[in-house]
Amino acid sequence: MRRLMLAGLAFAVMCSAVLSLTGCVVVAPRPHYAARVWVPGYYAPAGVWVSGHWRG
Length: 56
What we know:
By secondary structure, the protein is of the alpha+beta class. The protein has one helix at 2-20; strands at residues 37-39, 42-43, 49-50, 53-55. The chain is 34% helix and 18% strand.
């Protein structure tokens, strides 16, 4: 019985790890909000770091 419970716990942990690494969750924007997208940080062509920001 203990081995079965340990296997079930290991399976649950592995499933939650896989689900957490699957990627973005896309949700339709609410009607009264403008659609916004998170832009991660990047280096501009002049070598200047541009931090992450919301683009609307």
